[in-house]
């Protein structure tokens, strides 16, 4: 289970309402998301410092790459695209073609006939490492590359794709290089949003040392601003000042990805089994017995002076997973669950007050799946 709330402090403050990150893979292991074709031409290369072993405590690898070799057909590593209007895939690869015909890069795939390719080749390589981006808005894809002075836009096309990933083209010849993947990031765009602000408020995007990168003023009849991140990920701070330059709140240094949404408000906490649920990690609710899991949680207002009003708790879909369809929430009525629904309103919480809720997971049909089925517990309030 994922949580869309995060700890802020003892007053109105900035908190991350939504994470834009879908995955950030540095290939310390091979995740099940990757579909390898052909599998015999792709392998994981993880190397550790001399004298160390990959045992507990695990040392930090000196090399961690997914290696793609040329094969009789095109070599591909693909993942299923989530159903999001906007996506950004960013690829960092150790790939320097040294011979004509050696080509590799990003592929956006619908089927065997309809696909888009954005390829590195002997003519285009100008630096030791290749960095590529594919940016999707709707069905339009834009492709860019960093040649050493920032990302440049090279091409664009339309495709209702189902998969994306990396491709290495053409059968092997002497002089052809393997493509070594260092990192692949998928997030919900290039921008972060800061909301629930008043017109005339000033918002600063700063680096991790607090130096200003960019500032924006909330326009009339608007309630927030958007910043395009200078890098993805970006480690930095966000600071908000009200009308008259009165400081209101800040957050960070924190790691940001495109699609992150920050909101000025009062944060709430959700507790279960003596621990606070977090926005940046999953919570395992346990094994299902008799086709059901039923747990009691507590929503808390940790502030000392601020009321949280009209609190709604909702079950939402995580990526493309089905888990949310099995989940309902209910208010606590005398220590027992009330009426279950997809969304409930538990009213208001005074400072330092808490209220219990119930979360029920019910198996609706037999499904064989090795990985846990995830869902999001979303908390909103005034």
In a nutshell, what does this entry contain?
The protein is mainly beta and 382 residues long.
What would you say this structure looks like, in words?
By secondary structure, the protein is mainly beta. It folds into three domains: 2-12 and 266-380, Immunoglobulin-like (Sandwich); 22-187, Sandwich (Jelly Rolls); 191-259, Immunoglobulin-like (Sandwich), CATH 2.60.40. 0% of the residues lie in helices and 51% in strands. The protein is built from no helices and 31 strands. Strand 20 (234-241) and strand 21 (247-256) form a beta hairpin. It is globular.
Mean pLDDT: 86
Number of E-type strands: 31
Shape: globular
What name is given to the CATH topology of the largest domain? Jelly Rolls
Helix content: under 10%
Total of DSSP H or I helical runs spanning 4+ residues = 0
Largest sheet: 8 strands, antiparallel
Return the structural class.
mainly beta
Ranges where pLDDT stays below 50 over 5 or more residues in a row are 2-11
């Amino acid at each position: 289970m994922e949580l869309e709330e995060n700890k802020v402090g003892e007053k109105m403050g900035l908190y991350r309402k939504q994470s834009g990150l879908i995955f950030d893979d540095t290939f310390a292991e091979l995740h099940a998301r990757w579909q390898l074709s052909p599998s015999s031409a792709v392998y994981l290369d993880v190397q550790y410092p001399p004298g160390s072993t990959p045992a507990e405590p695990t040392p930090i690898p000196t090399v961690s790459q997914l290696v793609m070799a040329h094969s009789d057909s095109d070599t591909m590593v693909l993942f299923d695209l989530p159903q999001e209007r906007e996506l950004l895939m960013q690829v960092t690869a150790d790939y320097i073609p040294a011979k004509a015909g050696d080509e590799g890069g990003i592929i956006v795939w619908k089927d065997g006939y309809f696909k888009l390719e954005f390829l590195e080749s002997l003519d285009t390589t100008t630096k030791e490492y290749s960095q590529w981006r594919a940016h999707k808005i709707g069905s339009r894809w834009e492709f860019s590359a960093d040649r050493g002075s920032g990302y440049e836009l090279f091409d664009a096309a339309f495709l209702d794709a189902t998969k994306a990933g990396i491709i290495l083209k053409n059968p092997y010849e002497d002089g052809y290089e393997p493509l070594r993947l260092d990192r692949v990031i998928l997030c919900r765009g290039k921008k972060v949003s800061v909301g629930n602000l008043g017109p005339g408020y000033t918002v600063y995007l700063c680096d991790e040392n607090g130096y200003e990168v960019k500032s924006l003023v909330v326009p009339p009849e608007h309630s927030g601003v958007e910043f395009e991140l200078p890098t993805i990920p970006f480690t930095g701070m966000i600071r908000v000042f009200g009308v008259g330059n009165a400081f209101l709140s800040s957050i960070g240094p924190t790691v940001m990805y495109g699609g992150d949404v920050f909101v000025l408000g009062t944060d709430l906490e959700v507790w279960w089994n003596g621990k606070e649920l977090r926005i940046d990690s999953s919570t395992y609710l346990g094994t299902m017995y008799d086709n059901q899991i039923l747990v009691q949680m507590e929503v808390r207002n940790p502030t000392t002076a601020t009321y949280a009003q009209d609190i709604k708790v909702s079950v939402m879909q995580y990526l493309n997973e089905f888990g949310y369809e099995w989940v309902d929430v209910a208010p606590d009525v005398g220590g027992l669950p009330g009426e279950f629904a997809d969304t409930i309103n538990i009213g208001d919480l005074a400072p330092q007050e808490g209220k219990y809720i119930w979360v029920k997971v019910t198996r609706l049909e037999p499904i064989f799946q090795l990985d846990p089925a995830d869902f999001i517990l979303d908390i909103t309030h005034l």
